Amino acid sequence: MKDVSFGQYYPVSSFVHRVDPRLKILFLIAYIVAIFLANNFYALGACALVLVLTIAFSHVPVRKVFRAVRGILFLVVFTAAINVLFNASEEVYWAGPAVYWKWKIFSVTQAGIVFSAFLVIRLVLLVTFSSMLTYTTTPVALTDGLESLLTPLKWIRFPVHALALIMSLALRMIPILMDETERIRDAQKARGAAMDEGNLIKRVKAMIPVLIPLLLSAFRRADELGEAMESRCYMGGKKRTKYKKLRFTWRDLIAFLLIAALVTGVVLLRVYVGAFL
Amino acid sequence: MNPFPLRGLPLKGAARGRPPIITIKTMQITAEHLTYVYNPGSPFAVKALDDVSLTIEEGEFFGIIGHTGSGKSTFVKHLNGLIRLPSSQKHYKKPKAKKGQPAPVEPSLKVGEFDLADRKTDFRALRKKVGMVFQYPEAQLFAETVFDDVAFGLKNFEKDLKAEEIEAAVKAATEIVGLDYAAVKDVSPFDLSGGQRRRAAIAGVIVTKPEILVLDEPAAGLDPLGKKEIMELLHRLHRDWCRTIVIVSHDMDEIAENCTRAAVFSEGKLVCALPPKELFLKSEELLSLGLDIPLTAKLCAALAKRGVSVGCDFTVDGFVRAVLGAKGEKR
């Protein structure tokens, strides 16, 4: 549980930290689009380069960044395995047999290896870049950015402000609930609960003494928070002003140019180089 | 000639002509140079414990006093291995001595026969001997009935207990905490009142008869009557159930009234560990650490200002006796 660092702000000051949150959200979307447009390794390399630059200019320790990947390690390994085993295509990418091993419907082929390597890189880039957003942006800034980006939806009477509030509260509660989980885990471990032993079913069963108290306390917290907000006359989005107005600066321009270059580059590579290698 | 003619025979020491080796297993807690850093190497790094050396004897009713963030909870979590010493963790590297400096002292912690600095220690066996009641323990209740919740720890620690044995242990534990076993055993713990829930949670910890019982702020958030009842419960437990009791508390009256000895923590360091009688003589030092002093100590100080000096052990009874004694002298 301690290793889930997804969605935790890393409090240092850096270039990336100070980029406008609205843009950062758009950049994340653009980056995801770029990753999915990328259909060869050069394009993926460009995406990775942008990620490396982002990390370098964010002052977030690399170890911390890759902890986010550890959270989806199972997913990554699973996806890779499925893709290697079930890809029967006999395309050849390098000298050597196209099919290394075959048994019934399972096979290990060159195409399978290439394809799953591609997917793994995609997944890792995706998760790492997304976690960079939460590492470098405070939940408050993130919600402000999102609210501002979603403003057009207000015309169709979509409760943008409520959505933004729900988001920021959810983000805010992550560390609190993690602390709470830690506390309850400790309490149950002190009563001899075996949390990290046995097979999967045993482990899932061992979670029950943690999950039930956790859910209860989450509900209690939600109630208390609701009451606290009401007692301070919270009325939702109408006529609320902002403490911090968002403004674009030269940093935003540089970041924008970088992302724009990435997307353009990826599109060009897609058109002129084609799929894979 | 075989110099050890009896070697290999299944005889006790006495039969070999030597006095029998009697190992008295006392559950003494010995901490030496205990140091702990939260989130080492990150901007959140906090030194929670700094070179703490402390011994808690078996049979004590030990108090731990300190501010929020003074390291008292961290210390207490070490006692049953919820926080491991660095040397008991995987991938541990011994710190190297720098040139011209003595080798760094390694923290050590022993609880009875358990060496907590050793990775091979059976931490589950340790947790059976050292019961831990966290702050607001009612937050750990989860089962459908009080019986199941109290039995949870027991079933975890001892896999092959018969149903009757479990029932007997649960019954004894619920009764000693002052709950009516027949009335509560099939009730959901969430239907109990606040005070009852706390008792049920404590029963869930003591059901395994731990030799050391550690409680973090056992009376927090209770009304005065509830506090009194919890302290009475702790004395009952100390007398009949667990030999050593360690409580973490903010309430100095509670410490003065109940503890045989108390340790003061401040900013991760151990300031002192003394019986209340001596500890609260240092009222000024405690106040300068931002801690409170018991009402009896305040009264003693107020009396001293008026020229009446009463020496007492800072319990209410002791104070009254001392005051009456001083009055008698004046007559």
Summary, kept brief:
The complex is a heterodimer of chains A (277) and B (331). With 277 residues, chain A is mainly α. Chain A has ten helices and two strands, in the order αααααββααααα.
Throw out a few tags for this protein.
heterodimer, A: 277 residues, mainly alpha, two-stranded antiparallel ribbon, 10 helices, globular, disordered N terminus, B: Rossmann fold, 2 domains, six-stranded mixed β-sheet, four-stranded antiparallel β-sheet, 10 strands
What does this structure look like?
- The complex is a heterodimer of chains A (277) and B (331).
- Chain A is mainly α.
- Chain A has a domain at 15-173 and 246-272.
- Helix content of chain A is 67%, strand content 3%.
- A two-stranded antiparallel sheet of chain A has the order 1-2.
- In chain B, strand 7, helix 7 and strand 8 form a beta-alpha-beta unit.
- With 331 residues, chain B is an alpha/beta fold.
- Chain B is flat and about 65 Å long.
- The A-B interface holds A 10-12, 61, 64, 183-184, 186-194, 208-210, 212-213, 216-217 and B 42-43, 77, 80, 82, 124, 127-128, 131-132, 134, 137, 139-143, 152-153, 156-157, 190, 204-205, 208.
- Reported CATH architecture of the largest domain in chain B: 3-Layer(aba) Sandwich
Q: What is the residue-mean pLDDT of chain A, rounded to a whole number?
A: 85
- Tell me the Rg of chain A in angstroms: 23 Å
Could you say which overall geometry of chain A the principal axes of the C-alpha atoms support? globular
Counting structural domains of chain B, the number is 2
Question: What is the fold's blueprint, element by element?
Answer:
The complex is a heterodimer of chains A (277) and B (331).
Chain A lengths: L14 H4 L2 H17 L3 H16 L5 H10 L1 H14 L12 E5 L2 E4 H27 L2 H12 L9 H31 L9 H32 L18 H23 L5
Antiparallel strand pairs in A: 1-2
Helix pairs in contact in A: 2-6, 2-7, 2-10, 3-6, 3-10, 4-6, 5-6, 7-8, 8-9
Chain B lengths: L28 E10 L7 E11 L4 E6 L5 H8 L28 E4 L2 E2 L7 H7 E4 L12 H12 L5 H14 L4 H4 L9 H13 L5 E5 L7 H17 L3 E6 L2 H7 L2 E6 L2 E6 L1 H4 L3 H6 L6 H11 L10 H15 L1
Parallel strand pairs in B: 3-8, 3-9, 6-7, 7-8
Antiparallel strand pairs in B: 1-2, 1-4, 4-5, 9-10
